[in-house]
Design a protein that fits this description.
The protein is α+β, with helices and mostly antiparallel strands. The strands form 3 sheets. The protein has a 5-stranded mixed sheet, sandwiched between helices. The chain has a 3-stranded antiparallel sheet with strand order 1-7-8, with no helix packed on it. The two termini are about 25 Å apart.
């Protein structure tokens, strides 16, 4: 895992905890259309799941109504990708197809990928109350917490539904006033980024 911290390259199978899978499904009306970077231990059970090595989620179609992603936080040296690649696809799916997208990611507000794909493209953020979120490791709760704070990012139009579901899990912030702005071009927003 990264976000300015030590990258854990030993496991790419950090699964979403049960309570967050349940919350995501609630926001989406009961089902998830696409999980573009699943693993064999995932409990997400999306209608369509892309899993390496057979399907590279960054190269496959994201033309789905609802998308949930818990992307790899580290660097995939073989493919030359990082979490920035996944966040770019989230923003693109919402803009191009009108997809409702939720992403569970490390809080890294000082990074270029948050400035470019979260603050100016997403609708809302839930900064999760779990200070050391316990991911499922290879399908099981290992009891170990993540080394960083995490957030659920929302690209979509139903802010109220997102708020109603995720307020139980963290501090929900509506960032719609930043959408489609250019970081650094609006002096009123500068203090939010720097």
């Amino acid at each position: 895992m990264s976000a300015g911290r030590t990258v854990n390259t030993f496991s790419q199978s950090w699964g979403t905890p049960h309570k967050y899978v349940k919350a995501v499904k609630e926001v989406f009306g009961g089902k998830i259309g696409l999980d573009p970077c699943t693993n064999k231990y995932s409990i997400v059970n999306a209608e369509v799941e892309y899993c390496l090595p057979k399907h590279d989620g960054l190269k496959e179609s994201w033309d789905f109504q609802t998308i949930y992603i818990n992307p790899p936080y580290g660097i995939d040296k073989a493919r030359g990708t990082t979490i920035k690649s996944w966040l770019a696809r989230c923003a693109h799916a919402h803009e191009e197809y009108g997809s409702e997208v939720l992403a569970l990611v490390p809080v890294a507000v000082n990074t270029a990928h948050w400035k470019k794909y979260v603050f100016t493209k997403a609708r809302a953020i839930c900064f999760l109350y779990d200070t050391r979120l316990r991911f499922l490791e290879n399908g099981k709760d290992s009891g170990k917490g993540a080394p960083m704070a995490c957030a659920m990012i929302y690209w979509g139009k139903n802010y109220q539904k997102f708020f109603d579901v995720f307020i139980e899990h963290g501090a929900v912030v509506d960032i719609s006033n930043l959408m489609n702005s250019h970081v650094g071009s609006d002096r009123r927003n500068l203090k939010l980024f720097y």
